Amino acid sequence: MINTIEQDYQRFRQIVRGKIRGDLRRFLTRGDLIGKEGQRYVSIPVYDIDIPTFRYGNNSGGVGLGEGEEGEAVGKQGGGEAEGRHLTEVEVTLEELADIMAEELKLPRIKPRGEHRITTMRDRYSGIRPVGPASLRHFKRTYREALKRQLSMGIYDPENPVIVPVKDDLRFRSWTEVRKPQSNAVIVYMMDVSGSMGDEQKEMVRLEAFWIDAWLRRNYEGIESRYIVHDVRAAEVDRKTFFSVREDGGTRISSALECCKDLLGAHYDPGDWNIYLFHFSDGDNSSDSDNRQCVKLLEESLLPICNMFGYCQVASAYGSGSFHNVLAEAFPGGAPDEAGPRLVLSKVNSRDEIYESLRTFFKAGR
Question: Which of 110, 243, 266, 350 has the fewest CB atoms within 10 Å, counting from its CB?
């Protein structure tokens, strides 16, 4: 019975995965999906999955049994004749969601760079012992011991094969603590919050950052996320402020890169951390001199130590969009090394383009 239930459950999960894959582009652009994120689960509405239910009785008496004449309308409007769509809320782990995205976008697994000396202590189940807590009881081995005891004592009855374990039959899993190398990664998100970056632009950034987080967390044991906002000055903020703050005034992108450089230098040794940097802007920078300063900071300080620097330019009615061209001209081929381009450029003009933007960022497997 248990095996049958498990098989049915696995078939249901496969159906759910297929539905999510089919609607992945829609899910990538859903802001309310992020709001349903739990500690490790996301609640996703999936259409057209019928859940089996029991239906009792017959309906020969019609829709209602109260007062009223045949043909009399109920309510102010008549009911529709179209068949409804069935909607089921299913919980999917963030790991499953990241795997579905990877399958659909054909993303390779990321290979961590550098030497990683950080280790964590993990419990590893390594054997069986006769004592232990009830939560670690090994039911199969306990049953086997009880069966062997009853056979050796001659009290096993094939006609009535009841196995009753006693205290001496109990077996429990044992464990040892092992050191496991841990690949850590830090993600630094930088965003232009000047007046030209409106609510829609920030929503596109929020959506893309959610999926970037999901994919990188699937590839690394430990992830830290840091957030920097800037106009003509830059400052580190928390996640909530990052997606809600809005300023007026100009834009100096180099201020964010300087802040990022200082943050990494103070807290993240590139020998111990995989470093991912993402900058979001409408591409409107203050001057050509600041463009040159940005190129210098990237070339000398940031690109040599990071796995990837991703620049995502979101369309704005007020932004010039020129910074994308500045980077493309300064780093032809994306400043490649043996693993591929370190600088990856992307443009997102609408929510529908987030799908391709994510593919652009991670198709190299960095």
Answer: 266
